[in-house]
């Protein structure tokens, strides 16, 4: 494996592809974003919408590539909804988990969070709190597409996102770096606020909106913790729970 190939693969892991004419237009209009390339289907019919995208790309010196409809669908991974347009945005803070030195103190991890709005809100809150990384396994979690981008208010492009294949990979990698893995679960016996530590790097894992964290994943964690509830409230939305933990843990470390 050549160093050139490795560099290319590392670069591609920092690219987030956005599809759909309105989302792509919004990306191109945001000059704070590092736009890499605009992809267009060569079957697109002439229209003002396409003309506007091309003009914006040219004004920003963004490379434009033309593809067959089938080739474009392989880039967007959603040929039914890409509307013949895809744009690549570079997030230099996004890394493959295996490339991260995991030298931080607070991480948020997602296990089977399937609602894109929740994923986006978790990214936004965790980034605002200042966590050292948001670990989003590819398998089981919502794809980082337009709905995630919208609910993250664009934070997705600037947040410290770490990707891996599975929740098992996430836990294994963190434990190899002596990062304690804490699963947020209603049956936890430890108050999550008692787990905040400036001495012990910690990954806090939040789970599926309905079923919570997978039983197998919980069994591999070092600790099950819960957010204590009052006034008869049974649980919090996963994005709210992640926000509470992210701000609490980071503020304790600081």
Protein described:
- The chain is of the alpha/beta class.
- The chain has two domains: 3-90, Ribosomal protein L30/S12 (60s Ribosomal Protein L30, Chain: A), CATH 3.30.1330.30; 95-253, SPOUT methyltransferase, trefoil knot domain (Alpha/beta knot), CATH 3.40.1280.
- 36% of the residues lie in helices and 22% in strands.
- The chain is built from nine helices and twelve strands.
- The chain has helices at 3-12, 21-29, 48-59, 69-76, 116-129, 146-151, 167-176, 215-220, 238-253; strands spanning 15-19, 34-41, 63-67, 85-90, 95-96, 106-110, 133-137, 161-164, 180-184, 190-191, 202-206, 223-226.
- The strands form two sheets. Strands 5-8-7-6-11-9-12-10 form an eight-stranded parallel sheet, sandwiched between helices. A four-stranded mixed sheet has the order 1-4-2-3.
- The longest helix has 16 residues, at 238-253.
- It is elongated and about 60 Å long.
- The termini are far apart.
- The mean pLDDT is 94.
Features:
254 residues, alpha/beta, 60s Ribosomal Protein L30, Chain: A, Alpha/beta knot, eight-stranded parallel sheet, four-stranded mixed sheet, 36% helix
